Request: fold
Amino acid sequence: MELKDSVLKLDSSSVEAKIKRFVKDYVEKCGTKGVVLTVSGGVDSCTTAALAALSLGGKKVLGLMLPEEETFNATDINHARLVAKKFSFTLKTIDISQTLKACLSSIPIYDKNDKISKGNLKARIRMVYLYYYANRLGRIVCGSSDKSETMMGYFTKWGDAAADIAPLMDLYKTQVRQLATHIGLPPEIAKKPSTPALWPGQLAEKELGVKYETLDLILYGLEHFMTTEEICGQLDVPTQLVNDIKTRWLIMEHKRRPPLTTKLGYRTIGADFRLPYTTY
Amino acid sequence: MLSEVNIALSQISPKIGDKKRNLNHMKKQIKQAKENGANLIVFPELALTGYTLRDTVYESAEPIPGPSTNLLTEVAKKENIHMIFGMVEKSQKANAVLYNTAVLLSPKGLVGKYQKMHLPTHSVFEEKRYFRLGYELPVFETNVGKLGIIICYDVFFPETVRLLRLKGAQLIICISASPAVRSKFFEALIVARAIENTVFLAYVNLVGIEDGLQFWGGSRLIAPNGSVISQAKYDDEDLVIGKINYGDLKRIETFVPTLRDLRPELFGFLKKQAENL
Reply:
């Protein structure tokens, strides 16, 4: 197998159709009134919201913009509004700054120098808003995690990845960008550098230490059972980089699974309790 | 035996584990097929229950004959039609021995069954976890032809259709639950199986979404020269009817004489190599 850009080339029309069918089918089978999702202005959330609106109709899609003052970004807000207008779904903006402050001030061990714990709290507060809206409005939460970030564990556990469905989770970031362009998102959104926006200036590629174009090919190789040697033999990248990515992919499995327990009973949740998704 | 047969490909989306709903849906399809002249109607793999049953497979299983086959036998009699459908079969002798089975009914009652021989247990498939392998490839002599049945992954093993053809099958029925990422494989293989064996082949696939798996439909009736006689939609429920004429087999067998040119000694070598893979 050759690791080159073409392996990540999407049949965008087919993928768009499959994702729209998946979202519509699940919402209908659940008997819910639609979806709630965060729209940060980034490529993943804008693409997810647009696809949900194309699938369900804009009236069944509620986007929440949940900015807070530390990471407030007017460009992102404009991008989210642009997408909501273009795809005709409702967008509400709620500033979570006060909730965040109240939460932090009530935590006895809060440390202002620990930006990771604080950043993750922001993602979890957004999750709280999403699920409150979903409960109140009889909807489900639609996540926007992609495959690159999910494989790398580059998300907040029970935060931004918390959702009922995640339509983009089998697409690498570079594939999401292709799909975004295909469905008509403008280049300034489709090609925008990704950020979880947990603290000012945070950029995904800087934190991950690799460009998504390279990361996605490495992850694609790992997905297809290629060894580190095989991947490095094809991509002009250091062995250490591929080893680090592989290690991170493996040790982040705890973020992708339900909580681990020890087997005590006849059938155990997360192990050998295997049930289908049933919606009636 | 009829020389011309109208075959209905009933590409349905069952509701997981809801046999009552699915049986009602099948009954409507049978009625509609009969009204349009079908002599035989074919439903997909595990049409009675849906495919991704996982641990609920045990409560969905029934013996054959059993309640669902009895009910559909009455429908076959009433509508004067043959039918083939997939279901989870429970052994008559053991409680947790299950088969992924295709059932053949005629207007006269239960004709027989085929228990899937090749159980996929890779990628998203976990059939060996739940099902016992089948061991027989019967050919059924019916009023609608000499029928051989395979199920889904069986089509990847050319020896299955070859054996059925050598046992006299003129029409191969392949019922299936194939997710979309594998559609190209099936579209190639079903044509190959028809051509290499000079046999008619009816492929009927599930449609709908179960556990995130999108079954692609695309059911079709293939002539022995590989041409498509009739084809159902992709991704949506559909019911299409195609006509076959067994008289065409002689002309095709003359043009592509694979049966005449078979080399039986190779099968011995195949067996030896397969045992030492």
User: Anything to note?
Assistant: Residues 34 and 173 of chain A are 25 Å apart (CA to CA). The longest strand of chain A covers residues 61-65. The mean pLDDT of chain A is 96.
